[in-house]
Amino acid sequence: MSVSSVQPAQAITTPTVHGAWQLLSYDVEQQSNGESFAPMGEHPTGYVIFTPEGRLSFMLSAEGRQPGTNAEERSSLLSSMIAYTGTYRLEGDRWITQVDVAWNPEWVGTEQTRFFAIEGDVLTVHTPWRVMPNWPEKGLTRSIVRFQRCR
Fold it and tell me: What distance in Å separates the CA atoms of residue 133 and residue 69, rounded to the nearest whole number?
């Protein structure tokens, strides 16, 4: 009786979203005219962190933010950031977050859906078309956000 050497098939692994990702770019596209703008400057900062246990933390901050010196300036800082956290689930090319804390109280208790693709160490995210609370005058917009996996 001979024993043949059988090599196991190499496992095909799909990139995982778990881990920390640093912001590369943040642009917003207007549905009405197809134009894009960088609402938080050319060099915003931010991270998204996905835990294997199903918790997400998302934070984007505009380029050049400075501390406010009065109530009006401190209040306007709210429109130069996006931050939320909650539990998430993955469904194909979407992650859906059940928001439990957010910079905008209107998001608390809502589900936020994001479409994503991972190519190498780059995570590209598109939001659905929606009216964003930071710039409602732009009408329907979608965000296009790119992140680099943290090492």
Answer: 24
